Amino acid sequence: MDLSDRLDDLYERHLTHSERIHWDYHDLLPWELGRSFSIEPWTAGEGTLSPELTLAVETALLTEVNLPWFTAGLTRGFDGAPLALKRFIRRWTAEEDQHSRTLEVFLLLTRNGDPAHRNRLRRDVVELGWDLPAEDLLGIMVYTTIQELATRTFYQNLARVSQSQDRNLARVLHALARDETLHFAFYRDAVAAYLERDPNALEAVCRVIPTFAMPGAGMPDFANRMHVVGRCGGYGLDEYVRQVIRPLLEVWGVFDHQVSRSVERDRLALRDHVARLEHVAERSRRRVGQRVER
Ligand SMILES: [Fe+2]
Ligand SMILES: [Fe+2]
Hints:
This protein is an all-alpha fold. The chain has helices spanning 3-20, 25-28, 51-64, 67-77, 83-109, 115-128, 137-162, 167-197, 202-208, 222-232, 237-251, 261-293. The chain has a single domain (3-293), classed as Ribonucleotide Reductase, subunit A, CATH 1.10.620. The termini are far apart. The relative contact order is 0.13. Bound molecules: fe (ii) ion (FE2) (2 copies). Residues 64, 96, 99, 151, 176, 180 line the site of one fe (ii) ion.
């Protein structure tokens, strides 16, 4: 089967699965909790979540709000790409469209976090925009594969942590994670199709992984936010390496393909990079373990 037929099939598969898991944000949200902010202004200490979990959900929201820029960037990046990829970006935009809205309305209804402060952050983040992480089609798709899987993993882990604090949030996060899973699966298999056609295309994998940063990395205070998420939200460097990068290296057979000498050099550098990440993750895991034992 040629590449464009393969991508058409992936797109059709996506439509079928996406219809099956379709959800409506109005069904998921606890509308019965809503109260007017003008009659009862927000005060610190309100809400259903710990400050750490609120920060984690806000971080997810502030990443999702940049959808207009993601769509603009990907549309430019996929200019000249096979039709199935262009169609996917449109469908993907429509599916992502309710993610930020759902998270934001959840936070408002449950009075988690200062709504005025968050709204200013939202404006600043959208004003900042987003730049494409690579100029070539395959580099972009390797990036979006990592990003979708990282987001899925973040939401699933956060849902697990949320369960004891607010079940509505856990339900919302599971719904979002199901969408992200399908987005990830589309890109993962699209990249695999390119790799099957030319194993030296692994160059893009070796290039993109070491410089990967989440699309929300430009938001104010991002490093501190990720520190909190790593500590309390169930998603840090350790999860990134174990649940995102390792499975991708495996599924793409990164160390199995016969490649040119120059790609082999890239691949060895990637192996060193992942080993370094694992080393740092292991060290911080041990530090946390020691703190717990004390
Ligand atoms: Fe999303
Ligand atoms: Fe997604």
